[in-house]
Amino acid sequence: MPESIATILERLGRLADYGGRWDVLRNECALLHDRIAELRERETRLDDLLVIALVGGSGVGKSTLLNALAGDELAKMSEFRPCTSVPSIYHPPGARLEFSQDWHHVSGSALESLVIVDTPDSDTIVTEHRETTLEVLAMCDLILVCADGEKYLDEATWSLLRPLKNERTLVCIETKATEVPSVQEHWRQRLEENGLKTSGYFRVNSRRTLDRKLSGQPAGDDEYDFADLERFLHEGLTVDRIRGIKRSNAAGLLSKTLLTLEERITSREESLNELRKVLDAADTEVSKESFEIVRSRLFAEPHLWTYALGREISLRSKGIVGTLFRLLEALRSLPARMSGWTFWQKRASAGHQAASLLTDGDLVAENLDLSSRDLKAGFLAKRGGVSLEFARAGFNTSGADTGFEQFSEELNTQITAVLSGPARDRIVAKARALTSWPVAIVADTPPLIFVAVSGYNVVAEYFWGAILGAGFFVHAGTVLTIILALEMFALSLVSRYFAWSARQAGLKDLRVALIGNRFAFRAERDSLDDAVARIAEIHELREAVLKD
User: What pLDDT, in 10s, does the model give residues 390-411?
Assistant: First the structure.
């Protein structure tokens, strides 16, 4: 086959191996495998003999036509009743055929590369005869549709041809041509209306030709197009033409297979679009509920962010005020740090785990567990409605896992990514801003100036011979303590404001992560995406066949 068709078959084979949950497509896979096997078999028979089937109603002269082509009485003939009960096969000597040995085989040399099969009458009432004709049609490459002026519109014959539309090459044979006007125009018009295209039309009088050949007389004008028909069979059907016919038939079968598949599958495409809307809505609702639960459990605790920022400040603090802040932060965060000791490890809560993420970023996602009965109940309630809609759209939902564990893991992963990523980066950036050298110098300037002035007064009074009393030092210490306390209070207010702003920004990050990523029903979404991708593949294959 042409490379393009071979590639299409390969892609179609992968499509036929679909093992997803969409039963609408799974139900087509068996037929697809059969069609692919048939097409691949045809690929191996491109150089075989061309099999021609003579098809028509009783008394139209199929057997007479076969005998006229062979120049001998090979098949029984009758103009008034069906006389072909088994196919008569006229083939070159030594040809290896797959037809039943119970059929009438005749070896001859008149047609070197052709096999002509005279089939039982299409309008037979014998079921076995019609089934035999269908068997021949399934194995043939070219159909000579035989009819006369009375039976060219015979519905029994048309019922055999319609299923083979574009799958077989058709040639019309008007078998009993006389001086009566031809039915060619009307016959071909009706064929086209039924989507049946013909590649040739011949008017012959098979009886006259057979009688002439049996008597050894020269050809006469009363045989009409018989000589043209013989030239078509002997000279027109070259090796390249035979390969072209077989390729055309295979391409027609492939196109018809894809068209049928496209019609059956794409009729459900709109239901998949509606299903995606339902899935997105349920996903958004679950994500919003999860966001509210997480916000109430983690992000509603301001001290978590204050602790994280305070720890980062204490690690980077400089100067007098920074050192004092580090000491006070160590005392204030002592209970939180105790939860990390071995004795308290089992009592670590989600808040402590979140604090570890904000401060160290070293907690792996699976260690964070925010699942709760409310979270699971809300998820399962939404999943019940989603499963019902998927079942209505043709998806197999039996035996499917609830998906809550996967959802919970993904939820924890998203929260971990936010806390250890942008949230922690924001904490670190704010801590660095508060502990920068300019801020440290500005903070240390008031106490240093006060200490310098006080020291100057002590030294000056000493050289003037005066000894300062204890009250001076008490007052100086009190003022210095007030200055440091005010600066510590200001730094604490600023750090709390920074922690609050970091928390607000973290909430926005969390909302985007939970609602924007759509991970609540990952298994269902994967099944839906896979089905949509298969539909797109079918459309692409159909377009590729049409272009080819």
Answer: 999 999 887 767 788 888 888 8
Here the CATH number for the domain that contains residue 78 is 3.40.50.300
Q: Tally Cβ neighbours within 10 Å of residue 441.
A: 12
Give the DSSP letter of residue 297.
I
What is the tally of structural domains in the chain?
Answer: 2
> Which residue matches tokens 């160290």?
360
- DSSP, collapsed to helix, strand or coil, labels residue 169 as strand
- The rounded distance, in Å, linking the Cα atoms of 336 and 332 is 9
Cα 194 from Cα 265, distance rounded (Å): 24
**215 and 341 housed in the same domain:** no
Instruction: Determine contact, residues 83/63, Cβ cutoff 8 Å.
Output: yes
Residue with tokens 């660095």: 432
Rounded Cα distance, 303 and 355, in Å: 10
* Same-domain status, 228 and 84: yes
Question: Over the stretch 441-484, which tens digit does the pLDDT of each residue have?
Answer: 998 899 899 989 988 888 887 788 777 778 888 898 899 899 98
Instruction: Kindly report whether the global pTM for this prediction surpasses the value 0.70.
Output: yes
Task: Note whether 136 and 213 are same-domain residues.
Answer: yes
Q: How many CA atoms lie within 13 A of 282 on its CB side?
A: 24
Element (H, E) at 353: helix 350-359
Let me know if residue 358 belongs to a domain: yes
Verify that 285 and 190 share a domain, yes or no. Answer: no
Helix runs in 118-238, H state only: 127-139, 155-161, 184-193, 206-215, 226-231
Q: What share of the chain is helix, strand, coil (3-state, %, to 5)?
A: 65, 10, 25
Q: Are 415 and 370 in contact (CB under 8 A)?
A: yes
How many angstroms separate the CA atoms of 440 and 111, rounded? 106
